[in-house]
Design goal:
By secondary structure, this protein is an all-alpha fold. It has one domain. Helix content is 77%, strand content 0%.
Length: 108
C-alpha cells in the first residue's frame, strides 16, 4: 500500500507540474520554453498511471484522492496559501477514500 501511495503522489506531482508551467507562461508571462518541460511532465504523468496493476477506472478513482491532497500541499508550499481546517479535513477524507479503494484491489 505504501508503494502505491508514493507512486500516486509522484504521479500527482508530475500532473501538477505539467499544468503549472503552462499556467506560469499564460498568466505570469514566463517563457514559452516552459511548455517543453510541461509536456515531458505530463507524459511522465500518463506513464506513471500505467504502472498500477488495477483496472484503469479504479486507478483513476484512487488517484483522485491523492491528487486532492497533493494539490493542497502544492497550494501551501508553492503558492504560500495557508490551508484551513476544512482543507485538511477534505484532503484527509479524499486520501481515506483512496486507501479504501486500494485496499480492495484484487479482492473483487
Amino acid at each position: 500500500m505504501l508503494k502505491t501511495t508514493l507512486l500516486f503522489f509522484l504521479t500527482a506531482l508530475a500532473e501538477i507540474i505539467g499544468c503549472f508551467l503552462p499556467w506560469l507562461w499564460l498568466k505570469r508571462g514566463a517563457s514559452v520554453w516552459l511548455l517543453l518541460p510541461a509536456s515531458l511532465s505530463l507524459a511522465l504523468f500518463v506513464w506513471l498511471l500505467t504502472l498500477h496493476p488495477a483496472a484503469s477506472g479504479r486507478v483513476y478513482a484512487a488517484y483522485g484522492g491523492v491528487y486532492v491532497m497533493t494539490a493542497l500541499l502544492w497550494l501551501r508550499w508553492v503558492d504560500g496559501v495557508k490551508l484551513s481546517h476544512w482543507d485538511w479535513a477534505g484532503a484527509l477524507l479524499a486520501l481515506s477514500g483512496m486507501l479504501i479503494i486500494v485496499a480492495g484491489w484484487g479482492r473483487s
